[in-house]
Amino acid sequence: MLFAVSSAIAGVWQVKPERVGRNWHYYDGTMYVIALGEFAAEMAKTLTPFIPDRGSLLDLCCGPGLLSLHFAAKCQRVVGLDHALGMIRYAEKQRRRQGLKHVSFVHGDATDRSAFADHEFDVVILSMALHEMPLEVGQATLAEAKRVAERVVIADYAAPLPRHLPGMVFRYLEFVAGFQHLHGFLKYQRHGGLDFLLESCNLRVIGETDAVRRSIRIVDVRAVN
Ligand SMILES: C[S@@+](CC[C@H](N)C(=O)[O-])C[C@H]1O[C@@H](n2cnc3c(N)ncnc32)[C@H](O)[C@@H]1O
Predict the structure, then answer these.
(1) Which of 22, 35, 64 lies closest to 180 in space, CA to CA?
(2) Of 59, 127, 129, 133, most Cβ neighbours within 10 A?
(3) What is the 3-state secondary structure (H, E, C) of 107-125?
(4) Which of 2-11, 55-64, 75-84, 139-148 has the lowest mean pLDDT?
(5) What superfamily in CATH does domain 2-223 come from?
(6) Is the pLDDT assigned to residue 12 strictly greater than 50?
(7) Would you kindly state where each structural domain of the chain is located, as residue ranges?
């Protein structure tokens, strides 16, 4: 009920994004963590084998930084980037609370080519973000990911999303996230999800697993030479 009411309000706000800033969502920060914290913990466990020990990690579209903070123990350097200020503020607060000096959070756009140097990181993770982006933004984000690291690990919805209970819960969450979000999700599903995006960006899958009863695909990708 709370989500449905919030979604309606968010939908209205998003019609006039200049009121609140383009990258504001009603669920940024604490609400996201309450709704999806457990899911992020499962995701972190599944992603662990893909993250090299003592490496440098860029968590692109990091949201409230749950994955960045989780991998702080495994990595020498972690940077989380997100364009939603509410998410970055939440992540930074947790970082300070945990006293993690080798972790930083950046408020910025995933497609901004000036943020990092070529091959600055060992690995980029891009978790649960491509499905909410317009196609060309998703492609620009993948281009940026493969520029800053040789290894890119992506977690996102399977397409089609299975019709079991977790699949229906994910559909519901996409619905209540607001009109723009839902629009991106439906387009992502229509285009065939990750495979279409990877192919259009010359990325090849070299390892793959899944999570939440095959609702989420996790792919380890490299640029095709
Ligand atoms: C569903 S959340 C996933 C957060 C986190 N990666 C996780 O798995 O818990 C998607 C995040 O992508 C961010 N995002 C979407 N488009 C972006 C862009 N162009 N640049 C930076 N962040 C973006 C949103 O602000 C949101 O925090």
Answers:
(1) 22
(2) 59
(3) ECCCCCCCCCCCCCEEEEE
(4) 2-11
(5) Vaccinia Virus protein VP39 (3.40.50.150)
(6) no
(7) 2-223
Q: Is the CB of 109 under 6 A from ligand 1?
A: yes
41/45 Cα distance (integer angstroms):
6
Cα–Cα distance between 47 and 153 in angstroms, integer?
8
* C-alpha–C-alpha distance, residues 146 and 223, integer Å: 7
Provide the whole-model pTM.
Answer: 0.90
Q: Which residues of 19-40 are buried (b: 16+ CB within 10 A; e: fewer)?
A: eeeebbbbbbbebbbeebeebb
For residue range 125-169, list pLDDT tens digits in order.
999 999 999 999 999 999 999 999 999 999 999 999 999 999 999
- Ligand 1: centre distance to CA 55 (Å): 22
Q: Name the token pair of 30.
A: 């604490």
Residue 214 Rama label (left phi>0; alpha psi -120 to 50; beta): left
Handedness of CA 87, 125, 34, 161 (dihedral sign): positive
Contact 194, 219 (CB under 8 A): yes
Decide: 67 in ligand 1 pocket, CB within 6 A. yes
For residue 104, count other CB atoms closer than 10 A to its CB. Answer: 15
Q: Rounded to the nearest whole angstrom, what is the distance from the C-alpha of residue 59 to the centroid of ligand 1?
A: 10
What spacing in Å lies between the alpha carbon of 158 and ligand 1's midpoint?
A: 17
* Higher-confidence position of 2 and 93: 93
Residue 66, C-beta contacts closer than 8 angstroms, at least 6 positions apart: 33, 37, 40, 41, 44
pLDDT of residue 181: 85
